[in-house]
Write a structure and sequence with these properties.
Blueprint (H helix, E strand, L loop, with lengths): L5 H40 L2 H34 L2 H35 L6 H30 L4 E4 L4 E4 L2 H5 L2 H32 L3 H36 L1 H8 L5 E2 L3 E4 L2 E3 L2 H7 L5 E2 L2 H6 L1 E2 L5 E2 L2 H21 L4 H14 L18 H30 L7 H27 L4 E3 L3 E2 L9 H32 L5
Antiparallel strand pairs: 1-2, 3-6, 4-5, 7-8, 9-10
């Protein structure tokens, strides 16, 4: 990416906003379920201890939620300011789930969150508990519509190109909603939120153990938080398996880049790190078949035959057909009023090649190869840090269950180190997913160089700097407020 270009600065600004936003979303998902479980225990047992415990974690949830909303709103506005060609081209499809998220899910979260925070003395325990669960569920509902929109960019379905409006228009809403990529991404994101929430709750609780404060609160918070985190981690693994299948089927270049696989085929190896491979493992992960074909970067560039016997054209052929589609589209637009018969012929020719429309904007075949080094290592950091955090939570859960947490300073420190690691793991997951599909804003349909707005690079650079300062300030303020809240502890609500 060249930052002096409009495309480069537009991508950088969106990446900056998305990266900051994703610091807050998974913690909202994770803390939501944890605080709801704690309040459920309070309502069932009537023990004030669990009420105070739930209220403490609700405060942490609220601080994080507020900053997440601010970054999320800015993120959505950028589709109109920096990516207006994209918004025009697919706004009929992409805008629908975003609108639903804004009208329904955000409304649901905000309404019941108000009851959750201000209703302890105003509504009954059961209604308050319902509000807490609906707040947690609302966060997940909000996430699913965002992820449906994102999954459509990874695997576009349920639409047709209309040459009269120059737009892809939705023809099957159900296909968009039930996109298999969306389902996998939703559960993967929710479970990763549970994992992150479990790590944060465990680490904060270990901080109190380290300080010799709120010992019972810390132990019981670990029992709930670490258990949710462990369940979430195994959920991440299971959904990661289905995601691998979908990436192999719909985005083979991303998979090849993640593995640094230049030449693929049957029994493709999985690379742990450069020079250390497990023979045949990538074929098993990607196809659930040892003899499954996994194309490498060169195979995709030159064309190959997939596992179903379909011949996939070379990138150069796709580019040729894409340019033909663009030319047929131009002819149709030019002649549709003056020569309907010739326009109809051009439209028919366009429909034959419309699936390669986006390739008409690609300058050379190598441009469809994403930055291999970046996605190769972010994928491994995501897995490695996630496994370390799982180990920490299993240890914390074991010692908490046995009531043997006292004196385990190594575990306290281990848990606190895992906090930045789990956030890095989450960011690496999104980098792998989004950088891995470059140069496409929509896989195979619209590259980034055709999606940007007609603004100057300097204006985007200016707003990038402003956002970087503001977001960093937001993060610093949130960390400061959280630190003060944690320092006061659950005994001083």
């Amino acid at each position: 990416m060249i930052l002096s270009s409009l495309v480069g600065w537009s991508r950088a600004q969106f990446a900056l906003t998305a990266a900051y936003h994703w610091l807050f979303v998974p913690l909202t998902l994770g803390l939501g379920i944890i605080m709801a479980i704690m309040e459920t225990i309070y309502v069932r047992k009537g023990d004030e201890f669990w009420k105070n415990t739930a209220r403490f974690w609700e405060k942490i949830f609220g601080i994080n939620f507020a900053v997440g909303v601010a970054t999320g709103i800015i993120l959505e506005f950028q589709f109109g300011t920096n990516w207006s060609n994209y918004s025009w081209f697919v706004g009929d499809i992409f805008g629908a789930p975003l609108a639903i998220e804004g009208i329904f899910a955000f409304f649901m979260e905000s309404t019941f969150m108000a009851v959750m925070y201000f209703g302890w003395q105003k509504v009954g325990p059961k209604f308050h508990l319902l509000s807490t669960w609906l707040t947690a569920i609302g966060a997940a509902v909000s996430a699913i519509w965002i992820l449906i929109a994102n999954a459509w960019m990874q695997h576009p379905v349920g639409m047709e190109f209309n040459p009269d409006t120059v737009r892809n228009e939705m023809v099957d809403f159900l296909a968009v909603v039930t996109n298999p990529v969306a389902i996998s991404k939703f559960f993967h994101a929710v479970f990763s939120g549970w994992e992150l929430g479990g790590v944060v709750v465990t680490a904060i609780s270990c901080f109190y153990l380290f300080k010799g404060r709120s010992l019972e609160f810390a132990r019981k918070s670990i029992l709930v938080g670490a258990l949710v985190g462990v369940i979430g981690t195994f959920g991440v693994m299971l959904t990661g398996d289905s995601s691998a299948i979908h990436v192999a089927k719909y985005q083979p270049m991303k998979l090849a880049a993640c593995e640094g696989l230049e030449d693929g085929g049957a029994r493709a190896p999985f690379s742990i790190v450069p020079g250390i491979e497990i023979p045949g493992m990538l074929s098993i992960l990607a196809t659930h078949d040892l003899d499954g074909i996994v194309p490498g970067i060169n195979d995709i560039l030159e064309g190959y035959t997939d596992n179903e016997g379909n011949v996939v054209p070379s990138v150069e052929e796709k580019m040729t057909r894409g340019k033909a589609a663009l030319e047929d589209f131009r002819i149709y637009r030019e002649l549709k009023d003056s020569d309907p018969e010739a326009a109809a012929a051009a439209k028919a020719a366009l429909e034959e090649n419309v699936e390669y429309f986006g390739y008409g904007y690609i300058e050379k075949p190598e441009d469809v190869v994403p930055p291999v080094g970046i996605v190769y290592w972010t994928f491994r950091l995501m897995i490695g840090f996630g496994c370390l955090c799982l180990l920490m939570m299993l240890l914390a859960l074991f010692f908490a269950w046995k009531d043997k947490l006292a004196g385990k300073k190594w575990l306290y420190l281990f848990s606190m180190v895992c906090v930045p690691l789990i956030f890095i793991a989450g960011e690496c997951g999104w980098i792998t997913a989004e950088v891995g599909r470059q140069p496409w804003t929509i896989e195979g349909l619209l590259p980034v160089n055709a999606a940007v707005s007609g603004v100057s690079a300097s204006s985007v650079m200016t707003t990038f700097i402003i956002f970087a300062v503001v977001f960093t300030l937001f993060l610093a303020i949130e960390l400061r407020i959280m630190y003060k809240t944690i320092s006061k502890g659950p005994d001083k609500l």
